[in-house]
Amino acid sequence: MCSLGLSGSLTSLDWCVVGGYFLLLFGLAWWVINKSKNTASDYFLAGNSLSWFIVGASIFASNIGSEHLVGLAGSGCTDGVTLAHFELHAWCLLILAWVFIPFYIRSKVFTMPEFLERRFSPNARWVLSLISLVAYVVTKVAVGIFAGGVVFQVLLPELHFCGLDSFWVGSILVIVLTGIYTMLGGMRAVAYTESLQTLILIFGSLLVTLYGLMALGKCDGGDGSLVAGWKNLRQVCANQEEGRDMLNLWKPLLPKGIEGTWSPVIEKGGDGQIVRQAWYFKDRSQGSHYPWLGMLFCAPIIGLWYWCTDQYIVQRALSARSERDARRGSVFAACLKLLPVFIFIIPGMICFALSYHGTAGLETLITEQNGLKVAAAKECQGAFPLMVREVLPSGVRGIVVAGLLSALMSSLAGVFNACATLFTMDFYQKFRKNVSEQQLVWVGRAATAVMIVVGLAWIPIIQGKNGLYDYLQSVQGYFSPPILTVFLLGVFWKRMNARGAMAALVVGFLLAILRLGIDTAATLGTEFSENSFCWFVNNVYFQYYSVFIMAVCIACMVGVSYATAEPDYAKIRGLTYGTTSEEERARSRESWSWPDVVASCAVLAAILAAYLYFVG
User: Fold this and answer.
1) Contact 250, 435 (CB under 8 A)
2) Distance between CA 267 and CA 276 in Å, rounded?
3) What distance in Å separates the CA atoms of residue 424 and residue 421, rounded to the nearest whole number?
4) Which is the most buried residue in 55, 116, 140, 502, by most CB within 10 A?
5) Lowest mean pLDDT among 18-27, 431-440, 567-576
6) What does the DSSP assignment read for 237-272?
7) Among residues of the chain, what percentage have pLDDT more than 90?
8) CA 332 to chain centre
9) What pLDDT was estimated at residue 35?
10) CB–CB of 335/57 below 8 Å?
11) What is the pLDDT of residues 409-427, one digit of tens each?
């Protein structure tokens, strides 16, 4: 038994710290709202006035949200550093900075679909907007709301209001408060508040890691030092005798100790509902299994789509005051992106180790199977807020709770503004010509409200899944391939035309909807006949299905493009490598600077060091 000697509940001091943070946050938002000019450019792109620091901090805060606080820390508790692969995709931000930024800035667009319209056709723009809106609703919006509920459920389990438990009260509070300042202030309010939230989030999360390691260092009679804590962590999480390999990034194609041929495994929870079906062997007692093949070759599809082509992220770079600020902000965000391994995954592992030692308040995270202590997947989703509640002292706990709420709100604020921008600029403005700037802003606010309602309605689907991060990565794996295909081939291959892009987008979107529909039906309890089409699709491992979609999209785009007429190269000047003039390239090179190059090299070196360290 390892005792921490802390109360675990929020004290008056904690609430004062949280209250002070929210006063500061909304004070900043109010100041920004008063500075706003109520124009479309200001509401959706902050009037192209953001410095590199605001761009980078905003990108990081938008990314580091609910899926990290609940999903990534939870995966650290069950699977160790396996999902650090996704965090080490910081190199994708360097691709954004050095490869894509020049084309985006030269095009002077509001949205990524608008860039596709310039490169291909209006139809490509509308299809991408539709895909993006659907993907945002079933991933970012719903996941953000769900994670807010989990945090409140752990920290304030006694909170009830009008028949709603703490989960739903927390979900609604987070989304309403975030929606208010997002609807009023637009992109400028989102970016500036995210910069403040980034500082609070990093500081607070680092405190969780440090206090957690010190608490773990006291177990087994240790001296409570960070070194003792890390040594204890390695002993527990890399215990080969008990089948744990949580400090190894590279998992075998099949879990250790399992022999045989590839075949589907259908897993059911205690209530009989299917919680996972996957076309690969899996031993539930050892947590999730992400084979190295999928993580090395399939996961980058999601990374490149997310960091280089997703409106949610790229909108911050589009809001920069210059190409240099956009590039430098992206490089700065890449530096920050290295932190989640240490401020989310490691705390999740610490939580598992403390539970392993019988720490009071954390007992529910571990169960016994066949005489071995293993992580309970569902309970581990609350690993990070549990660490906040049980490990931190009063006052410090309030700072970290503020950081928790910061991350939840920043990720939701970013997606709300991205959804509003897509709907307003890519749909409404196209069908309603000659509308005023003020009307566009109000339509954007109305679109935000609709996203809130739809996101709330999708939460029951997430609740039926076996882990928030698994759900998020699988759905993004379905929607990302067609988008990444048209952007990559569109920028690097001038021969690709509008018909080829439409073929790739439509076919890829239909394949994604097919898989999502079948997965959703299985989650809700539908059982497919063995060896039927739906059964087979549902059992293919999601990363391999993502590669399948990517291959089909590439084949469609190349085949259709070469079967039809060449594009008009004069109309796509500056939008592909093959149509960019030497003068344009020279202007872009003028914005380069040696600090950006050095920082980029440092990011790559840090990623390589992490890959070498976390090898079993």
Assistant:
1) no
2) 5
3) 5
4) 116
5) 431-440
6) HT-GGGT--TT-S-B-SS-TT--S----EEEE-TTS
7) 20
8) 18
9) 66
10) no
11) 766 776 777 777 777 777 7
How many CA within 13 A on the CB side of residue 159? 19
Q: What sign has the CA pseudo-torsion 61, 289, 287, 278? A: positive
Picking from 201, 144, 199, the residue whose alpha carbon sits closest to that of residue 174 is: 144
* DSSP assignment letter at 339: T
The helix (H) or strand (E) run that includes residue 367 is strand 366-369
Tokens representing 616 are 């079993």
Residue with tokens 């500081």: 203
**Nearest CA-CA partner of 495 in 563, 545, 550, 543:** 563
Confidence band, pLDDT 50/70/90 cuts, at residue 266:
very low
The pLDDT of residue 264 is 40
Rounded CA separation 176/57 (Å): 23
Residue 428 has pLDDT above 90, yes or no: no
pTM of the model: 0.78
Collapsed DSSP state (helix, strand, coil) of residue 494? coil
Contact 321/46 with Cβ under 8 angstroms? no
Contacts (Cβ under 8 Å, ≥6 apart) of 383: 73, 74, 76, 77, 347, 348, 351, 352, 365
CA–CA gap between residue 244 and residue 239 (Å, rounded)? 5
Residue 575 tokens read as 């939008």
Helix axes 396-423, 383-391, angle to 10 degrees: 150
Reference 412, options 174, 112, 71; nearest CA is 174
SS3 category, 43: helix
User: Please, which contacts does 8-13 make with residues 24 or more away whose CB atoms are closer than 8 Å?
Assistant: 8/361, 8/389, 8/390, 9/389, 10/155, 10/156, 10/397, 10/398, 10/401, 11/394, 11/395, 11/397, 11/398, 13/394, 13/395, 13/398
Please say whether the beta carbons of 218 and 452 come within 8 A.
no
The pair of structure tokens assigned to 289 is 């299994």
CB proximity list for 269: less than 8 A, separation 6 or greater: 275, 466
Give 279's pLDDT tier (boundaries 50, 70, 90): very low
pLDDT tens per residue across span 184-227: 655 566 667 767 777 877 888 888 899 999 999 988 778 888 99
Q: How far is CA 506 from the centre of its chain?
A: 24
Q: How far apart (Å, rounded) are the C-alpha atoms in residues 564 and 569?
A: 15
Q: Residue 107: is it exposed, middle or buried by C-beta count within 10 angstroms (0-12/13-18/19+)?
A: middle
Helix 166-217 and helix 142-155, axial crossing angle in degrees, nearest 10: 70
Q: What is the mean pLDDT of residues 159-174?
A: 69
Single-letter amino acid code for the residue at 8: G
Most confident among 23-32, 325-334, 351-360, 577-586 (mean pLDDT): 325-334
What pLDDT digit, counting tens, does each position of 560-583 carry?
999 999 999 999 998 998 898 888
